[in-house]
Amino acid sequence: MKKLFTLILLFCAQFILAQSNFELKLSDAALSLTDQHVIYDPSYFSIPYPNGDVPADKGVCTDVIIRAYRKMDIDLQKEVHEDMRDNFDFYPKNWGLSKPDKNIDHRRVPNLMTYFSRFGKVKPITNNATYYVPGDIVCWNLGDGITHIGLVVNKKSLDNQRYMIVHNIGSGQVLADCLFDYKIIGHYSFIR
């Protein structure tokens, strides 16, 4: 019995370490994106499928998430498209589409929120900064129906009170202390 307990404990410890290792690598992947010069460009692009991306020097907030996960060998374009193809009714109809569009669906915050709600872990929305850890995905409502998304990374704010965010809200892929600057509407962890 003691041997079985020890094995279970070792398995659980390995699982927890693997999760935190993934999240730290995802954080590093997001931070590496801040070294690239990217112009905010919300244009529609026709892109290859799977593993398609808009031009490397262009992007929006969702492209930060997509590119960080792509560095982890996870293609959110493919993942979101396949789920939307099979479960279109679960996704928002904000754009008047009657079917998925592999060029743009993964680049829309409400669609990513739906996907992460379905396949990730929905985490609490709170004003307590300790709940937001590296590797978490945060979504905001900027007002007037505009949504935004960013990734929590392993860099602390100047006052050391919270982790910072890598996002693109108009100035390219940047590191910012903006966790509580807008109304948080989504908080997720997505590990594969």
Structure report:
The chain is α+β, with helices and mostly antiparallel strands and 192 residues long. It has a single domain (2-189), classed as endopeptidase fold (from Nostoc punctiforme). Helix content is 33%, strand content 20%. It has 4 helices and 8 strands. α1 packs across α2. The chain starts with a helix and ends with a strand.
**Helical element count?**
4
Distance between the termini: 32 Å
Largest sheet: 6 strands, antiparallel
Helix and strand composition category: alpha+beta
Spatial order of the strands forming the largest sheet? 3-8-4-5-6-7
The domain count comes to: 1
Shape: globular
CATH topology descriptor: endopeptidase fold (from Nostoc punctiforme)
CATH architecture: Alpha-Beta Complex
Helix amount:
25-40%
Identify the CATH class. Answer: Alpha Beta
Q: What amount of the residues lies in strands? A: 15-25%
In short:
The chain is α+β, with helices and mostly antiparallel strands and 192 residues long. 33% of the residues lie in helices and 20% in strands. A hairpin with a 6-residue loop joins strand 5 and strand 6 (163-167).
Keywords:
single chain, about 190 residues, alpha+beta, endopeptidase fold (from Nostoc punctiforme), six-stranded antiparallel sheet, 8 strands, globular
